[in-house]
Amino acid sequence: MTPTASTTALVLRPAADAEFWAVARLFAELHQFNAGFDPLFRLAETWEALLYEHFRQTHHAPGACWLLAWRGDEPVGLLLLEAHTDSPLFAARRWAELVALYVVPDQRGSDLGRRMIAVGTQWAAAQGFDRIQLYVTAANTHAKHFYARCGFAPVQEIWRIALTPAPGVIPPPDPSCETNGHAAHQIELGHHHLAMELCASPNVEPPDA
Ligand SMILES: CC(C)(COP(=O)(O)OP(=O)(O)OC[C@H]1O[C@@H](n2cnc3c(N)ncnc32)[C@H](O)[C@@H]1OP(=O)(O)O)[C@@H](O)C(=O)NCCC(=O)NCCS
Predict the structure, then answer these.
(1) pLDDT tier, 191 (very low <50, low <70, confident <90, very high otherwise)
(2) Which residues form the N-acetyltransferase domain (predicted)?
(3) Which pLDDT value is given to residue 71?
(4) How far is CA 83 from CA 40, 99, 104, in A?
(5) In principle, which of 65, 67, 139, 143 could form an S-S bond with 37, CB 3.0–4.6 Å?
(6) Where do the domains of the chain lie, and which CATH numbers do they carry?
(7) Distance 15 CA to ligand 1 centre (A)
(8) Could you tell me whether strands 132-134 and 94-103 are parallel, antiparallel, or unpaired per DSSP bridges?
């Protein structure tokens, strides 16, 4: 009998050095899914090299949790949590951010998402964090129901107005992101570590799957 999504045992474990290909596959599917709600959330052309560099630097770090779920030799779930540091302007500036959560379509509804959230909340509490925060697309009602069922509640909203930009003008860089050789200083200003990678050129190519 061919094992099905429901009959094959799932294994959840931290992503190993050689498993970037699995992280990248699920990360790409997640962001393709998100871009389906809003094309402004699509990934940049260089995303894979940037993500690989970030994975290489952080997947063993105490402030990051890169979790994969496996069905046999097939990756079927991804959870990424990271320590987040807001500007020192804010009193309660350290929290755990849920950066990515994805379950492949034929495994959804089997409790895998909730199992990964349970691993993530245990990890975050054990690292001393008092909360996990995340961003979810307003139109992603499925994920919002899911997070609510897992105990999350909204605390802030991102609002947007579309503009007609001045023709031919390239927006200036984020002043906190300009490369001045003080990466630690940039982190102190409160930039998301993954976002920060976008400020630098990738210098490491991801390995082939
Ligand atoms: C959101 C997601 C991770 C949930 O994973 P999942 O494995 O399907 O969820 P689970 O099977 O663990 O479901 C847990 C709870 O959510 C509920 N749920 C699952 N699918 C649901 C749906 N389509 N609508 C409403 N609730 C749903 C389940 O019923 C269950 O609640 P219950 O105890 O009341 O039955 C998964 O659907 C996914 O990867 N979606 C696409 C990517 C995405 O949206 N990621 C989040 C971006 S921020």
Answers:
(1) very low
(2) 10-173
(3) 97
(4) 25, 10, 25
(5) 139
(6) 10-155+165-197 (3.40.630.30)
(7) 22
(8) parallel
